[in-house]
Amino acid sequence: MQHNSQKKRFEVLLRPHFDALYGAARRMTLSSVDAEDLVQDVCLKAFLRIEEFERIAYQRAWLLRVMYNKFIDNQRLSARSPISQADTGADSLDPDERPESRWLPDEEADRDVRIVRILMAMKHLNSDLAALVALRDIEGFSISELHDLTGMPAGTIKAQLHRTRARLGRLLANDRSLGPNLMAVGNNNEL
Amino acid sequence: MNCEAASARIRALASGELAAEERAAAMVHIEHCAECRSALHGAEALNALHARGMAQPPEHFFNTVIETVGRTVGRAPDRSRFWLGAGFGAVAASIFAIALFLNWGGVAPTSVTEQFLVSLDEPRTMSIAFETDKKLSGATISILLAGDIEIDGYGTRRELSWSENLEAGVNRLSLPIIANGISGGQMVVRLTHPLSEQVFVVQLPVES
Asked: Which of A139, A184, B82, B128 lies 20 to 30 Å from B23 when distance is taken between CA atoms?
């Protein structure tokens, strides 16, 4: 009974922010499936901390900060998963599970490559700083709102935003830091 | 113009919202300042993500999320879907193993609660076996920690997530768990895939 009450409270709390949360997740992922996974993980975390979530003044910013943190963590951790195969069956590629290839117009393909490069670069950022700069530059939160959310002085926030943007810019200017798969398709002058 | 003034204008510069005169003044500084030039590149990249627009969630996704988080935390234990291998036992000295038989064909996800004793003195390895009868591409395994516990080597991280291609057969995930307080904690493990979903909760009391 108490659980149902919590679920109802959570539903009411989450509803006003859900579209913004999904929209943000979709921006940062390359597929709707990944976006849905990301949103579910964030919502699960919020639900488990519902008492804290209810008391937060800036619930949307809090949810988005959790989402960006999680996105960076996921990006980073996917490269060092501890999963091991204890016993495997056939290991050949299943033709039914190969990703569909699709031809894109040049402009669209270039844009997609650019987005992939940016997302790859972001995983090299400190996740808290990446979340901060994403809340400001992607989601449009003001310095004052970020101050209320983080408790950091405005001057510190501005300095961290500048340094994080610069770090991201340097990462993008140096394709080698983004992994071998992107070296062939990147264009250093593109940005 | 100095770095502070240029930095205050970089967002507007990246999104093309700065007036021509201000833009020209900012660019004079940026051309000679490597740090601000990099910051402008970074701001342009973030602006490109902003410009991807605001996609709407799929219909019913909100309800799906509410149901899923509700199930994850609140569902009564359902042991019938677990396989506890004879070699493992429910709680062995330091090895704990759970096998999940994945459901195919739209069967509702399950949530199971188990218990694993942790220690303040040393990490204990919890092994989780994911068993599937066919290859499972693009599965996501998420772990959420609450309370006075840590995964050894991950510090205070409360969430871990991996995208995996699980092979047919048994895929084992080994996690060294250690307590950092006497209250113990809880771990939620979720395996999601477009064809299946499994969730289980492990209570982690501290050995007295």
From this structure: A139
- Give the pLDDT confidence score for residue B29 in this predicted structure: 93
Q: Which of A137, A163, A170, A182 to mutate to test the interface with B (most CBs of B within 10 A)?
A: A137
Distances (CA, A) of A88 to A99, B128, B138, B163, B170: 22, 16, 16, 18, 7
Looking at the fold, whether A113 and A190 belong to one and the same domain comes out as yes
Nearest residue to A20 via CA among A68, A56, A76? A68
Domain segments of chain B: what residues? 3-50, 77-204
pTM for the model: 0.57
- The residues pairing with B108 across neighbouring beta strands, listed in sequence order, are none
- The pair of structure tokens assigned to A83 is 């999963």
Q: Over the stretch A70-88, which tens digit does the pLDDT of each residue have?
A: 888 777 655 544 444 333 3
Answer whether A4's CB lies under 8 Å from B67's CB: no
Q: Which residues pair with B190 in a beta bridge?
A: B142, B199
Alpha helix (H) residue ranges in A84-188: 106-122, 127-137, 143-150, 154-173, 180-183
Q: How far apart are CA B6 and CA B24, in angstroms?
A: 11
- Inter-chain touch B135–A168, beta carbons under 8 Å: no
Which residues of chain A lie closer than 8 angstroms to B56, CB-CB?
Answer: 19, 22-23
Which residue has tokens 């996740």? A127
Instruction: Compute the distance between CA of residue A10 and CA of residue A17 in angstroms, rounded to an integer.
Output: 11
- Put simply, the answer to whether A166 touches B164 (Cβ < 8 Å) is no
Residue among B143, B146, B81 at smallest CA distance from B112 = B81
Sign of CA dihedral A144, A150, A153, A155: negative
Segments forming the whole domain that contains residue A52? 1-78
Tokens of A53: 């979530």
Q: Classify residue B207 by burial, with Cβ atoms within 10 Å: 0-12, 13-18, 19+.
A: exposed
Bridge partners for B100 per DSSP? B82, B130
- Per-residue pLDDT of A135-182, as tens digits, reads 999 988 899 989 988 888 999 999 999 999 999 999 998 865 454 333
The yes or no reply on domain B77-204 and CATH 2.60.40 is yes
Question: Is B156 an interface residue toward A (CB < 8 Å)?
Answer: no
